[in-house]
Specification:
The chain has helices at residues 22-27, 45-54, 60-72, 74-96, 101-116, 141-154, 186-204; strands spanning 6-9, 12-15, 30-31, 39-40, 119-122, 128-131, 162-164, 173-175. It has 205 residues and is of the alpha+beta class. Strands 1-2 form a two-stranded antiparallel ribbon. The protein has a two-stranded antiparallel sheet with strand order 3-4. Strand 5 and strand 6 (128-131) form a beta hairpin. Helix 2 (45-54) runs antiparallel to helix 3. The longest helix is centred in the middle third of the chain and has 23 residues, at 74-96. The chain starts with 5 loop residues before the first strand and ends with a helix. The structure holds zinc ion (ZN).
């Protein structure tokens, strides 16, 4: 997939958020799920952190701390990203090829660890919510926030109405409650598909 479906933010290529849920957009940090030459957006902790900030999973301060920590500890950063990519592969399988038992078990284990890192905090409105506490490893925090978002999605009916874009070099996921949406983005894959069909008709004519 070309870079048209992404924007440049702070020097980082961030894919467009078309999924309708941060966990789906996380899966869309890779394109070409059905192709032999996929496009990867998550090259390191900095890319993961900037992306997580753009979809409001972490604060700007948390994203900046994660990026700084990864500079100080490149090996630790690489390990976090490897876990994030493995989690993404499993999550994609769970959402697109259920029941995907083995992948689901690995997702569940990541969810258990993320839940164990969370604390219950009461907000100013008196309503409590699970948060990742301040003492969380800053480098790990964007990854844990992604796992928490994925857990939220998987516990909702919306997890059963996810579609994948049929364009082979795309495969992006999106919420599709009505089942009527075909493309990740009409402006992007929808138009590319139209252009291809038109080219084929011209060729055949
Ligand atoms: Zn697409």
């Amino acid at each position: 997939v070309a870079d048209v479906a992404s924007v440049l933010v702070d020097g980082v290529r961030v894919p467009l958020a078309v999924g309708g849920h941060p966990a789906l957009d996380f899966c869309n940090t890779r394109a070409g799920w059905g192709s032999g030459s996929p496009k990867e957006y998550l090259h390191g902790v900095r890319e993961l952190a900037v992306w997580a900030r753009e979809v409001d999973l972490v604060t700007p301060a948390q994203a900046a701390r994660a990026a700084r920590a990864a500079v100080a500890d490149p090996a630790g950063g690489a390990a976090v990203v490897a876990r994030a990519l493995a989690f993404r592969t499993d999550l994609y399988a769970v959402l697109t090829r259920p029941p995907a038992h083995a992948a689901f078990e690995r997702v569940a284990e990541a969810a258990r660890l993320a839940a164990a890192s969370s604390v219950l905090r009461r907000g100013l409105d008196g309503i409590a919510e699970w948060r990742l506490p301040a003492e969380t490893d800053p480098m790990e925090l964007p990854y844990l926030a992604v796992v928490r978002a994925a857990t939220d999605l998987l516990t909702e009916p919306a997890a059963t109405t996810v579609s994948a874009c049929p364009m082979p070099d795309c495969g992006w996921l999106f919420a599709n409650p009505t089942g009527r949406r075909r493309w990740c983005s009409m402006a992007w894959c929808g138009n590319r598909s139209k252009a291809r069909r038109f080219a084929a008709r011209v060729r055949d004519a």
